[in-house]
Design brief:
Length: 131
């Protein structure tokens, strides 16, 4: 699976990238919103693991931009932010799931398996759009 990890914390990005590369995934990384948007448009990942609170463009801004550019991509928000209506707002912007930091590796594994199943084209061709 081609996945994009977006977080402004270098250690988070590098740790997840190392782990998922070892498991055979194609991993793209971005430490900011502009870089993430460019990668989404150029490389069309199947899954984006997205932090909300970053310098420059926020995760909310990124979701707003990619919603039309790459509607087949599954977005999972990973955040340490806790506020009322957060999950509802993320889902309105296209996030399939919202999970709180710190995230356990086995939870991320399950999410990637789930996202891979959602992006598998149905028999006969075409592409499955995330629901």
């Amino acid at each position: 699976m081609k996945l994009l990890i977006v977080d402004d914390e270098v250690e988070v990005v590098e740790g997840m990238a190392f782990y998922f590369t070892l498991r055979g995934h194609e991993v793209l990384t971005a430490q900011g919103g502009d870089e993430a948007l460019a990668l989404v448009k150029a490389r069309r990942p199947q899954l984006m693991l997205l932090d909300l609170k970053m310098k420059g463009l926020s995760g909310f801004d990124i979701m707003e931009e990619v919603r039309g550019a790459c509607p087949e991509m599954t977005t999972v928000v990973i955040t340490g932010v806790s506020q009322e209506n957060l999950e509802q707002e993320c889902r309105r912007l296209g996030a399939a799931r919202v999970i709180q930091k710190p995230v356990k590796v086995d939870e991320l594994e399950r999410i990637i398996e789930w996202a891979a199943a959602r992006s598998t084209p149905p028999e006969g061709g075409g592409s499955a759009r995330p629901t």
